[in-house]
Amino acid sequence: MTKEQLTGAELVIRGLEYLNVSTVFGVPGGAILPAYDPLYDSPIRHILARHEQGAGHMAEGYAQATGELGVVIATSGPGATNLITPLANALMDSTPLLAITGQVASTAIGNDAFQEAYTVGLSMAATKHNYLITDASEIPQVLKEAKFIATTGRPGPVLVDIPKDILNQIAAWVEPGDLDLPGYKPTTEPNPKMVQQASALIKKSKKPILYVGGGIIHSKANNELFELATKFSIPVVTTLMGRGAFPDGHELCLEMPGMHGNYTATTSIQNADLLIAIGVRFDDRVTANPSFFAQNAKVIHADIDPAEIGKVRDAQVPIVGDAKSVIKGLIEALGDEKLETENWVSELKDMKTEFPLSYKQEEKGPLKVPYVLEELQKLTKEEAIVVAGVGQHQMWVSQHWNFTEPNTWLNSGGLGTMGYALPAAIGAKTAYPEKLVLALDGDGCFQMTCQELITASTENIPIKIVVFNNGNHGMVRQWQKIFYNSKFSASELTHDTPDYLKLAESMGAVGLRMMEKSDIEKVFNKMLEINDRPVLVDCVVDPDDMVFPMVPAGGSNDQIIMNEEDLKNL
Amino acid sequence: MSERILSILVEDKPGVLARVSSTISRRGFNINSLSVGPTNIEGRSKMTIVTELDAVEQVKKQLNKLVNVIKIVELDPNMTIETEVLLLKVSINKDSQTSVIEKASLSNATSVDVGQDFAIFELTGSSKDLDKFESLMKPFGIIEMVRGGRIAIQSNL
Q1: How far out from the chain centre does Cα A117 lie?
Q2: Does A1 score more than 70 pLDDT?
Q3: Which of A156, A202, A223, A242 has the fewest CB atoms within 10 Å, measured from its CB?
Q4: Chain A hits for B18, Cβ within 8 Å
């Protein structure tokens, strides 16, 4: 039987179908045009973004909400360079992403052809791996490899660059075979000896803390984590990327530690005698100055990426492995052990009561983001997928929103990419059309990718966006206030331009506005009622509000600034 | 800081050298010497990298993350056979000719080409031998010099 002959472009689309890709996000252009022809006839849904950065974040949102591969397509040159930010973002936050980019014809590569950029070189440091296809027959196998690399081990972005002549080249469809990746063999099963050593340390500990992050969510290990924490009564801190890995509201949940973490979470680590760190990387936003971080604690560090272990903090017990397997191993090794953590748990419980997160919402005063968030969550009956941008609002959402399920909190943690929220929310809503998806954004962030509101309207993706509009780059303003004598250099945006209601309307969405306390219930209820179009709420908030607690960059986690009063002692 | 020698087995694929070197430079580390060439195994190349890193463990881990990197071995300097090749073009004239050739021959350098007013020598040996030869030739006027980068192999199984 002769094999079916296809163009390279058809092999790409057939390959994506073969890998069970149902949705792709992208923007067409010259070099990638051949691929868009068979895509038109494919059952794969294509969401036409208004900018490649938006398309990339959409694919990230899709991947973060589902835990599965997100796919983005762009053309050569500027299409590919516009993808660099989402690729770098996905690399930092370990999001499984496949980017397919068109390239100028292989005969033109290196000649500074129209829309030529050295995509493989440019994306090398922003991807887990990348490829330049040199023959159409490679396509099915490379796509299978790319998905495997993106979704296994520590997940991450993989880019496949395909010259236009290769997309037009005829080759046979050959079902991809076994993968031959001699240099890529992630360790998922932990070394039992290390697990035994860890359990011995845990048994001796009186003040253990489970310090967990995004690794739990990638590994879908939240149930195992719950069992480990509750069976042995070990308090849990969830990092920014790990919010939702352990349910907020549980008496063992201390929530987020670090620069803007709550007092108890940050201090619990400082006072702990043992850190059981799983799927975390001791990020500087968590540790502040590492020399002052958890000085009394021994460290068990489990991660699927060996390069994270010992990078920032030496571990007494290093464990390379998948979080789920590691936790299962620990539960088994601990058996029926009863830990003496009673005093520790109650000490932390008292601390929570003594040092709660606080804010003051005055009856007639300007709106405060934490208050608005808490009211919004009260009005939201169902479990929402919450997506944030980067800055003050992001920290407030992480602090004040109650997360009880994994994959319900999407944000740009590592890279801190402003403009992430709106497109990522579109991606999440594409994956789960029946779920409530809330983009809780800042005005500075929103303005970076707001054209994607058009994508949401035209593609019928009815997300809800709340723009916390303080007319400023709020976090920049906060730092200028604290560290630069209130010299507000280039941080002001003005809160009335654009007019968000008109902007929403012109982009096919519904615009609503809230200015004061009495608006909140009415406006949010209206927002929640509308499900046939995107809704944008312009929530005008206090520009002078600051996020607390706060540990200045490079400071010690023993010195937490709790409020504006504390700043005077700085 | 003492020298560390990494012997890295990689897949012979386009861009692998760029991936390895950019991984090292991206983390702010310097390379004293780097060489790359084929091995006895089809489709596999070997890189030898010499650095002076305290953070060599972290570099090894980062390099191991590269999909095309198969294996990294840090060579024990006491159990390692190491060599490097050098080509050196030096000026000669009637007065210096004899002295240059004598010094080269005492250094075990081979003359590979001699012209009217220059000579080219090849020398294989330890980096120290090569350094020494360079300083011997310096007074005569080195026109050009190329070194091949250090290669090394473990002297046990």
Answers
A1: 28
A2: no
A3: A223
A4: 121, 124
Q: Could you report the per-residue pLDDT of B112-132, keeping only the tens digit for each?
A: 999 999 999 999 999 999 999
| Cβ contact B61–A307 (<8 Å) | yes
pLDDT by residue (tens digit) across A422-452? 999 999 999 999 999 999 999 999 999 999 9
Low-confidence winner among A9-13, A75-79, B95-99 (lowest mean pLDDT): B95-99
Helix count (H) and strand count (E) of chain B?
4, 9
Helix (H) or strand (E) holding B122: strand B118-125
- The tens digit of pLDDT for each residue in A132-158 reads 999 999 999 999 999 999 999 999 999
Contacts of A182 in chain B (CB under 8 A): 11, 70
Whether chain A has a CB inside 8 Å of the CB on B10: the answer is yes
* Cβ separation A181–B19 shorter than 8 A: no
Q: Which two tokens stand for residue A73?
A: 């397509």
List the single residue in B18, B22, B69 with the smallest CB-CB distance to A183: B69
> Which residue is closest to B63 within chain A, CA to CA?
A307
Is cis: bond before A186, omega within 30 of 0? no
Given 3-state DSSP classes, what are the helix, strand and coil percentages for chain B, each rounded to the nearest 5? 30, 40, 30
Chain B: give the shortest CA distance to residue A411, in Å: 25
pLDDT in tens, A225-252: 999 999 999 999 999 999 999 999 999 9
| B28 in reach of chain A (CB within 8 A) | no
B69 has a chain A CB within 8 A of its CB? yes
Q: What does residue B16 show for φ and ψ, rounded to 5 degrees?
A: -65, -35
> Which helix (H) or strand (E) is A238 found in, with range?
strand A236-238
- State how far the Cα of A173 lies from the Cα of B91, in Å rounded to an integer: 62
Tokens, residue B33:
């010497």
Q: What percent of chain B has pLDDT over 90?
A: 81
In angstroms, the separation between the Cα of residue B69 and the nearest Cα of chain A is: 5
Q: Would you state the pLDDT for residue A154?
A: 98
Domain termination residue (choose one: B50, B75, B100): B75
Q: Which of A182, A306, A307 comes nearest B11 by C-beta?
A: A182
The confidence score (pLDDT) of residue A465 equals 98
> Of B62, B68, B69, which is closest to A307 when you measure between CB atoms?
B62
Give the per-residue pLDDT at B55: 79
Q: What confidence tens digit (pLDDT) does each residue in A22-78 have?
A: 999 999 999 999 999 999 999 999 999 999 999 999 999 999 999 999 999 999 999
Residues B128 and B144 reside in one and the same domain: yes
Which CATH number is B91's domain given?
3.30.70.1150
Give chain B positions within 8 Å (CB) of A183: 10-11, 66-71
Alpha-carbon distance of A56 to A43, in angstroms, equals: 21
Instruction: Report the C-alpha gap between A357 and A548 in whole angstroms.
Output: 8
Say whether pLDDT at A6 is over 80.
Answer: yes
Give the closest-approach CA distance of B105 to chain A in angstroms: 45
Inform me whether the C-beta atom of residue A182 falls under 8 Å from chain B C-beta atoms. Answer: yes
How many C-beta atoms surround the C-beta of residue A382 within 10 A? 8
Residues of the domain holding B130: 81-154
Among A124, A132, A307, select the one facing B65 at the smallest CB separation: A307
Q: Does the domain spanning A369-547 belong to CATH 3.40.50.970?
A: yes
Q: Which residues of A are catalytic?
A: 52, 114-115, 164, 475
Look up residue A228 and give its amino acid: L
Could you report the per-residue pLDDT of A102-119, keeping only the tens digit for each? 999 999 999 999 999 999
| Pick among 3.40.50.1970, 3.30.360.10, 1.10.1710.10, 3.40.50.970: CATH of A5-172 | 3.40.50.970
8 Å CB contact between A561 and A567? yes
Cα–Cα distance for residue pair A142/A36, rounded to 1 Å: 19
When pLDDT is averaged across residues A370-390 and rounded to a whole number, the result is 96
